[in-house]
Every structure is written in structure tokens, then in C-alpha cells.
Amino acid sequence: MTRPPLDLVPADVPADRLTHNPLNGVTGGIWRTRRDGRPAVLKLITPPGGAAGPAHWAASAEPGHWNYWRREVEAYRSGLASTAWASAGLAGPAVLAVEERPDGTVALWLAEVDGRPGTAGTVGDFAELARRLGAAHADWRGRTGELSRYDWLARDWLRDYTLSRPVTEPVPWDHPAAVAAWPTPLRAALRRLWERRRELLAATDRLPRTLCHHDVWPTNLVLSDGGPVLLDWSFVGPGPIGEDAANLVLDTFFDGLVDVALLPEVADAVLAGYVEGLQGAVDPVLVARAFRLTGAAKYFWLAPVMLNRAGGATGQTYDRRDEAAMFAGRRPVLELLARWAEESLP
């Protein structure tokens, strides 16, 4: 859908289509436009069966499902997106309107946020975001029982999302594309990571719990003068300490949106900022382990999926590199991922 429906945005009103994951059956489109004469962002939310797409990105009608179709609507309507982390200086954009439409879709109108895109962030920006994430997570440490009143939160997002990724076995670990870009020790480590995926997830179950966004990365971040603003609250729910911070590191680099040469510095700065923000609510040694463990658990499936697709379409939305460049460009991030897994599991 190149433009919003005319009942939402008349033909004479500009509407610029924004990049989003077109595979996700929940998102019918996102546009930068205007509402009542002011800049706005319109997100069209689609119910199950309302959009074509692969099964592993299908919208769900089950409130606890990782991809429940109404979750972001409810996060904004309830005020959770604007208040849950407000004490830490983090929130979503202001809600202008929520419109239930006759065809079953929902029009979510949000205020446009002025600022730099997250992809233009510096090491210092990411460290500050991590500090605020730590403060937010500390605030919800031990309080996740209060979330029971929100029956639409993701029930077990990390496990449900990762185990739903479409990996076909046997994985071709020695595919020519991998051999050309990834040395033998890395391929062996990534194979061990895949084989120990359930151990990883079980280990994350034993970590302290908090309220997680579950999709903290540069394209969901605006660096405004008033502080960082987080977009896309469609996956929000309880989760383990460390997960949002680890995801920030990995997703900043996997798609080639930020220079991968910054990876070591960003990883160190994000962990340090996150520990600082937690202010002792969780032992720093445990925080460092949780950071590595949840990062490894989030992406144990990525190398297998890349190898399944090797030789065909990459299936990427944000990463515009060709296959060889993508395999080579992701090598440093996959090496970090494999090292985190080796350091986290006995």
C-alpha cells in the first residue's frame, strides 16, 4: 500500500511511506503525514488474515502471543508506552488518536518526533540510552506482577519469537557463502549456538525479570532534544534483565546501518551505561552475564536462516547489501554473538 486509505488521508495531503518490515502481518503501512494541520505519523494496524505474508510473521488474535495484533494499540491507549518508563526519561511518542475502522483495521495516529534518527547515533547516544534502559528496568525489577492487569502483553516474547524463526534442517554449515566469509571456528561456534538454543532459553528463564520493550534498535529510536524516544511498542512485555540492552548492541550492527568498526566500543559503552542505570538493583556480575546470555538467545537462529537462504533472495528489509557483503559484514557481530554464548553457558 503506497498511500493511506483516502478516508484517513485525503489525496491532497502529503503522505510519505516510511520503511518498516513488510513481512509482519500486523503492519499495513506507516506514513509521515499530517493530522489536523500538524505533522503526524499514521500506522495502520491489521488484524489476523488481513494481510498476506509468511507464517512466521503472521498476526495473532491471542493476547499473549509474541505478535498479538492489537498490542501496540493497547500500549498507547492504556498509557503504558508513555508512562511505564517515564521516570527513567524514556517514553513513546504522544498519541493523537486511535480510530477503529469498519474493515477491522485500526489507525494509530502518533505525533511526529523531531530529532536525529537512531541510525545517526553516536557511542555516547547509545550509552545514554542504555543508562536510561537500566534505570527503567531497575524500576520494574520485582514489580512484574503488577503487569497482570495488562492481559495483552507478550507472555514469553524471547522464547516464542526465536523458536518461531523458519530454520530448515539440516543446516548447510559449509555452504560456499559461509565458507567464503566465516572461518571454520566461527561456523563451528555458530553451530554449537544453534544446537544449544534450548539451554540458552532455559538459562534466561532464571534471570531476574523486568518490563522489556523487546525491539530496541536504531530504527525504533529518535534522538530528540528532550531525550531519546522509543517507537514501536508492539512487542512490549515482561522479559529478562539485559535483553533490551543486548538487542541494542546487536541490532545496531546486523543490518549494516551503523559502521561495524564501532561494535567493540558500543558494546562496552552500552553494558557500562546499563549497569550504571541499574544502580545496584542487580549484581553487576549477573548483569554482564544476562547481557551476553540474552543476546545469544535472541539470535541463535540467525546464522541458520542465512544459510538456508544462501544462494537465493536474502529476504532482508533494512539490510540492502548483496549476499557476499552481508555475510562478510555480519561476521564481527556473529563472532561477538558466538563469544557471548561460549562465555554464558558452562
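(the above was protein one; protein two follows)
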Amino acid sequence: MKRLRYISRASKGLTKKEMQQIALTSSKRNKEKGLTGFLVHFSGLFFQILEGNDAIIDRLYFDKILKDPRHYDIVCLGVEYIEKESQFADWSMKLIDIDDQTEIIPSVLQEVLLTLFTSQNILSQYTQPSVLNIFKSGIDPTTITSHKENRIIMFADIANFTKLTELFPPHKVIRMVNQFIEFCTQRVVEYGGEINKIMGDNIMAYFDHTKSQQAVEAGLNILNDLESYREQQSDDSISQYLYTGIGLAKGWVIEGNIGSQSKKDYTLMGNAVNLASRIEGMTRSLQRPIVFSENIAKQLQHSSIEYLGAHLIKGKLKAVPLYSVKQCPPCSYDVITQSLNHLQQL
């Protein structure tokens, strides 16, 4: 038997009648499926515990609860397997609406739960996106053993970032970086990838090895977003200098937890990670905003790719064939650098 706990935020204010209808519908469904538990409602937040058959709980959570438009910010707080009888055997779905209670204990409980939810929501914003996705699925990330996966790795960072930090005030730099990361995150997720790390002005993302086309499309759309964004900026805006280089490589990586007992990092390591990082660094010298390895190029439409030649890359004994996309025009990074140098002299 599985016990699942989750918390979420209501999409809109719910009346007492609507809450009772939710409880009634859930109770009927749970009886049919042999599930038990309770639902707590307080200040527009939900806390629910479900108990029952493993497969039935999983189907309900992933197919129904996560897709229910009546709530959002859904976070699975924990999953455990129990051998004993249900702790809430008499409740197919007991509704506890704390907002309707006036006693001191419900008021205190409401404050405790609200504080816990707020703290969790704040911490989630500082949590590595890939770890947060694992956590939301009900899996404890610390229990995942290291394993090999075939991945497409993406690196992207802001060109001339060091010089930009020297020329513009911190709040403008941070605003620019946040906008860059927002563009990257939206497109990576849209095309089926995940952000693994945010490292200052640099992001590392990954896709399944079968998604070469999607990974490249995500990169091209990031570039389009940045171009449109630059066109909207004034002449004295830092964001008119917001350019990036994107490197992609595919191969087997080790995925899992590294670190000490007090501090862990869920990451990907291996040749593909190193190669993607090196390729991203070569976008400047190649004057191409997106560059990728040969095994990615082979999965794309032949007419759309451009061969950039074989290049020596740090850590590789042989020259590595590199490719870009014909529809993506060259980027004159050196001209941008010259413009910043001129600005520095004013």
C-alpha cells in the first residue's frame, strides 16, 4: 500500500458549496477504487493524503491531480509504502475546511501549514529544476542511485558577460541575466528538455538522446527570442548587448548525486557534458551562435545543416567535426566586443 502527500494552491477562490462538491466527488471515486485519505483546505491552499494501491495512486496523481486546472503549484511532499492497514480507513475522502473553523487549534494549524507552504514555495525557487521535478513526482532525489543515460547536453551563456558587469550597474546586470534564463528555461521545457543547472549567466540543460531536432529547435528559438528582445531596447540599455552562444553534444553520461552528507548536487557528468561546454566556448571563434556535434547533425534534415569543419578541442586527441544551422546567420561577436570596448572608453 502506498501513502502519498501533496500540497497545492487553489486556482481561484472556492465557495463552501464547491469544496463540498469536490469532497463528494472524490469520496465516491475513492470508494470505487479502494482509496482512503483526507483533504485539508485553508486560505486557498490544499493539503491531501491519499492511501491505497500503488498503481491506482500513481494513475490518480499523474493523470488526474497534476492535470486538474482547479489548482497549481502542486508539490508531492512525500511517498511511503506501508504494510499495515490504512491509517484513515473510515475516510474515503474526509474534507477538513480550516477556514470554517473558529477554535484556536484550527487557527494555529492554519498558521503552521501556511508557513510550511510558503517556506517550501520559496525554497523551490532556489532548487535545481531537475531535482524539483524529481521531488514533485514523489521521489526522494537522495535515494536515486547513479546510472548511465544517453543524453543531449546543452550549454548556453551570455557573450561578453564579464565586460558587461564592469560597464553596467548590478541591478541592470541581474535583470538582464534573469531575462536570459527565462528565455532559456521556457524554450528548453517547451521542447521537452530540463534545466539541470543555472550557473551565473550560464545554463546547462539536457534532452533525451532521441530529441536532436527538438534540442536544436529550442536553441534556435532562444536566439529568436533574444533578437526580438534586443530590438525592443533603447540605445543605452544593457540588453541591446544580450547575445549568447549555444553548444550541443550527445552521448552517454553519468547521472546522479554527488557531494557530502550535508551538501549534495544532482548532476550529469561525462564526455558529452565536457564536449558541449567546449563547443559552446567555440561559438565565438566560429562566429556561429549555435554549434553542435556530428552525432546530432546526423539526426537533422541534411539540407538544414552547415558543416563548419573539424576543430581541435581541449581534451580531445583528434579534431572534432562541428556543425551549425544554415538558417541561423553568423554572429559577429568581435564587433559586439569592439562596441563594448568603445563604450568603456567614453
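Reviewer note on protein two: The mean pLDDT is 85.
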